[in-house]
Design brief:
Blueprint (H helix, E strand, L loop, with lengths): L1 E4 L4 H16 L4 E4 L26 H8 L5 H10 L5 E3 L15 E3 L12 H7 L5 H5 L6 H11 L2 E7 L2 H5 L1 H4 L5 H12 L5 E7 L2 H15 L6 H9 L1 E3 L8 H10 L2 E3 L4 H8 L8 E4 L17 E3 L5 E4 L2
Parallel strand pairs: 1-2, 1-4, 3-4, 5-6, 5-8, 6-7, 8-9, 9-10
Antiparallel strand pairs: 10-11
Helix pairs in contact: 1-13, 12-13
Length: about 325
């Protein structure tokens, strides 16, 4: 039996559960430690129930056995004399093929690559299907604006733009100067050259900050030939989606998945919103690096268009 340590928000939980599905397809019994990371009241909630997922939970005895954390006197004395005896395996990088070779291990990681579950994609897509719009609209979390955004998205050539702010502030060395204004401006230009009457829907965990950012982006699209009416129409083509908060972020992911095309930030939330987009002709644009100083090629999927921080199209993933 393996135990996967669950952590993070919905986007990370989706990668971890996808790894669970892969282990199950290999005939390896697998459970989750959903205790250690979620004891703090400030921790983001477990949200897999959005997809009607009920996962197997490891008991505390199983977790302490795998991680050698028992507080009983004899195990504590043994650790003092001989050191800890653990069965912990920690993922290395974005894709670590050694993860899939683990047996009877407590496994920690983010598992942010489709390569972990590439051979069971149909099954994963079936599991990761949002409920029908009627069911989502009737949940106590959705508000009246949600349906307005939804109808606008499905009835236009909608482009979902995602901006992730918090991580980039607290881990500047990893995140800074990746999703620059030049990156987004080039992505918008790329879309406008290929999608007639494109309408941009902007999603972010910090909408107040994005309001100022949007003004800069709109101004960057203005040309000398535009009239006052042209500029007003341009402004109306950029919609800030403000219906949801941290606890209802899955509704943002749902709306992102309903857009015709997607512009990603270096965020796994972005990644899943685009991955769940069922448009066969979708354009998905991503930053050409995910983190500074880290090899992140395994996070990209076929067809993604990669743009660098200076706004230059680097390549299309094959």
């Amino acid at each position: 039996m393996n135990i996967i340590r669950m952590s993070g928000g919905l986007e990370r939980q989706l990668f971890q559960y996808a790894l669970y599905m892969k282990f199950e397809s290999m005939g390896i019994e697998t459970k989750f430690d959903d205790i250690n990371e979620f004891r703090d009241e400030r921790t983001r909630p477990i949200m897999l129930s959005v997809f009607d997922i009920d996962y197997p939970r490891a008991t505390w005895d199983e977790i302490t056995s795998f991680t050698d954390q028992s507080r009983d006197i004899l195990p504590r004395l043994r650790r003092m004399i001989r050191g800890a005896r653990t069965n912990i395996y920690r993922e290395e990088g974005f894709y670590d093929p050694e993860v899939l070779k683990q047996r009877d291990k407590y496994i920690e990681g983010k598992f942010m690559s489709q390569k972990y579950f590439e051979d069971i994609l149909p099954h994963v897509r079936e599991v990761y299907s949002f409920p029908d719009i009627g069911d989502i609209a009737l949940t106590p979390h959705s508000n009246k604006d949600f349906l307005i955004y939804y109808n606008d998205i499905i009835n236009t050539n909608s482009i979902g733009i995602h901006i992730r702010r918090s991580d980039s502030r607290f881990n500047e060395e990893l995140y800074q100067n990746i999703c620059t204004n030049e990156y987004y401006e080039a992505a918008i230009k790329y879309i406008n050259e290929r999608v007639p009457d494109a309408k941009f829907f902007v999603f972010s965990n910090e909408p107040k900050w994005v309001k100022g950012w949007l003004k800069e982006i709109v101004l960057s699209q203005v040309t000398d030939k535009m009239t006052h009416d042209d500029i007003n129409r341009l402004r109306k083509n950029f919609i800030l989606v403000e219906a949801n908060d941290e606890l209802t972020s899955y509704l943002d992911m749902f709306l992102l998945s309903k857009c015709k095309h997607n512009i990603l930030s270096n965020s796994s939330f972005s990644w899943w919103g685009a991955w769940m987009n069922r448009n066969e002709n979708k354009i998905v644009i991503a930053p050409n690096k995910w983190l500074n100083g880290v090899d992140c090629d395994h996070i990209y999927t076929e067809g993604m268009v990669l743009i660098n921080p200076k706004g230059r199209v680097e390549r299309k993933v094959h």
